Amino acid sequence: MHIVIVDSSRVVLRIVAGMLEPRGHVVSQFTDSNEALTYVAENPKVRALITSLEVRPLSGLELCWSARLLAESSRPLSIIAMSSARNARNLAEALDSGADDFIDKPPGAEELQARLRAAERLTTLQGELIRLAETDPLTGLLNRRAFLQRTREAAQKARSFGQICAVILDIDHFKRINDEHGHDVGDLAIKAVSGLIEGEGIAGRLGGEEFALVLPGHSLTQAEAVASRLRLNASDLRIRSPKGPVRLTCSFGVSEWSEGETVEGLLKRADIALYEAKTTGRNRVVSAMTDLVLSRAG
Q1: Where is the Response regulatory domain (predicted)?
Q2: pLDDT value at position 47?
Q3: Residue range 2-134 in CATH 3.40.50.2300
Q4: What is the dihedral of CA 248, 187, 231, 163, to 10 degrees?
Q5: What residues are labeled active site?
């Protein structure tokens, strides 16, 4: 487990790290609580934060609170407060500030290991609950809610650091596939298409046969190239059915982030472009400009 330890004393840090590292834990040590919080924010693989209440510039209680707000429901994180002054008030304040547990400082080796085993069970359960809440059960992609949340986070970064594009796609004549071959084959088609976009960027299933892909750091030209490659890959798919292999095609709408735009606006323009692709022949990529939808044949 990746653990962050925060204490003003480097001696305490060495003692605690010396108990953990031989057990295979990855330990990151900080005397500055602000630096520790930034590190936890930037490293989602951190699963446990152990902080003394006597730290600066953020107090231990403030660090517990900030870390809990950071994690919220989006990532598993166990927070353990420690203090040399163990009393009912400190314990209550730590738990009320977002800590999951409280230990003496410096902790005993056996107690620390036991509490970390409990923390690992907790974060494993949290991770599974988050996965279930965010994942489309058929495809394993992000569901609509999680996709929109990740897209908003990416758009927030794009405001300061660069470009972002959206691609919305769906399977052409999907109802025909279901009607002629059955819903089991339709599900196979949905899973096959989801496999094409998985790993390309922020990928989600919006519902039915419609998917979305957000590409941080991509220009419109680069996003068009991704969509064109995916279109060709989709046309190469062969879906098994009792009647023989089923072929399919997909249509794509692409939009590029513009300054001051909302996430909803970015996705809406991609959706308009997708509609244009569907009404002008299907199996093609259409790009939405800010004031104009340009049709691009596949």
Answers
A1: 2-120
A2: 96
A3: yes
A4: 160
A5: 209
